[in-house]
């Protein structure tokens, strides 16, 4: 067998943030002319690893070899000089510039003092033709579709002489047509001798273009497999791992009336990408409906459209049989909906206000909290004290500013506020992200308690374990589509992993 | 006809100060730093221009004095802009507030320094060697056009040169591309391996110096000395010229000419008896009213650099 030249090799790379290992002893070998996929769930440490390779930060342990020579990559500039190029997920383009101007920025060809725009334009044109990128060098970036902007990013890396190209979740922002085109471009690139690292969690992409695949889970190296020797089942299994599914103690499943009903919801982005694609679901009283899926598949848009934070294109949302069309967010909350948002800092709390003030954020305007002019300060403080006790919020007093509190206690403040409003429908997104085990258990128990009381609960989470232990039913969302439903008592990791990666079973 | 020629000539005289002030403001804003401090830098320029020329005169440098005044303004205001650089870049202070502080500081510090240097006087001593109009041979004898365009101060030709060269640098050279990129999206400039901080640093430093030339021009061509109200809001009009000129050197020039025209017409129109019925205050209002109308008409179309007023932090992606 022909020996493949190693262009990039990582040995035992570790990276710590505080006490937390984002990467632990990771090994990776990239061969010339290969597409090497890096597969893992959100937060598995893929991007951290590639940021290390691109010199954005230094590893805490391990060695990096470029062309079989050990090297310390100081910064992105150094990485570029070594022939490593990165196609960022969020484009780094100057919208007001032309394609050519964006590409040559920092490496401008000159005649005398001025930029040689003619030769630059020609060079960009030649490059784009050579790799089949079809980009007009003279168009302004702000007028280009997202897919074309990504090609400009690729050209930027190629113009700088990149031989190793890192693509960070490149298909996340693309339409299906654009994805097909990008995968073809990747094949052209490797045919021309470039090497590609493809960060992704989409199995079909890996199966269709990659030569090898390295799986990372929770920051740790799991396995590297040859694509020709594997299948999607194995990859899904490797990505998700063995989850310990233990159903928490709860009453037998006894669904009551429909509380939330969503019919044929559609949402299309400005660039024409389908964000929500014909989503229909129902949640009954006394049940937890789990939404499983990798981040960015339409979950946040789905919940934000239920509470009318965003407007959808077509479709119908009914809460207790009433359409939410034209209702304000407050109307919806008053009709018995509680909402625990994914981003507790941005949407859940006012960080520089204290606990008792955050507890009345939704209902401050009601008679019980004000006399028409002033807030009833004493009452608000007393209620704050009670809720701190009831929800085990640990802080000095109800007058503690929430910014300085731990994530778990902040989340409990939100939960206390939302649960105390006696909802009939609770929408709860990523309720335990970043929390310690004690807070997680507390929050899980609260969710089960509400379910047993007959509340309808829509739980969106990226944690399979959480979904499996809390949900009565699980819907899987992928690319804005509900692609299947499973019974948590009667499913397995492989099935869920495959569906989350876009393979409906 | 002669009145019109005089109005045009007067417009150019006023416009030069505004244009230089505005070019400074434009440069800093192209690099993403809002510059409300133009007024302060023009005041500083007028002050250093006046005392530079004055001390040159006391050293018997004669005709060189105004040139020395101009250089003093350029260099010392450059040092003064270092304060603004520190506030906005190093300490990441709000640009608008820092700019206003620069204006207040400049106005009051120069007032104080004048008192300190000249025994409690409110004005600097009058300079006798000011810039003189250059009559360009032959061209200045052309009827109408000669008066309008070819009898100007050397600073006018200097300003024109700065506009032409500035536009070339900004739109044709690598450094111009990088400065513009910094104002639009510093993240992309950074990932292209360019030091964003350095670009902002020098843009703001030079910005102060350019605006200072505008302030010095007023002293060294028309006023002859510096006092508390030499600049009196012209820095703000210069900022309006930046917006009107859409952050482009030639655009800024036309903006400055429009406002210069408003100033010149104020002076010329009062000569006519038929306008006696209108109080002079109305004419004094004219430049500001025109500024306001121009901004209202162009405001929505005007395109500021996208990252204007933001602080760039390379660790935030």
From TrEMBL, chain A:
PROSITE patterns: ABC_TRANSPORTER_1, ABC_TRANSPORTER_2. It is a peripheral membrane protein. Its main location: membrane. Residues 8-243, 260-504 form the ABC transporter domain. Gene3D superfamilies: P-loop containing nucleotide triphosphate hydrolases. One of its GO terms (molecular function) is ATP binding. This is ABC transporter ATP-binding protein. It comes from Halolactibacillus alkaliphilus. InterPro entries: AAA+_ATPase (IPR003593), ABC_carbohydrate_import_ATPase (IPR050107), ABC_transporter-like_ATP-bd (IPR003439), ABC_transporter-like_CS (IPR017871), P-loop_NTPase (IPR027417). Keywords: ATP-binding, Cell membrane, Membrane, Nucleotide-binding, Repeat, Translocase, Transport.
TrEMBL record, chain B:
Coiled coil: none annotated. Pfam families: BPD_transp_2. InterPro entries: ABC_transp_permease. It comes from Halolactibacillus alkaliphilus. The keyword Thylakoid does not apply. It is found in: Cell membrane. The chain crosses the membrane at residues 6-26, 33-55, 67-89, 96-118, 157-179, 199-219, 282-299. GO terms for cellular component: plasma membrane. This is ABC transporter permease. Keywords: Cell membrane, Membrane, Transmembrane, Transmembrane helix. It is a multi-pass membrane protein.
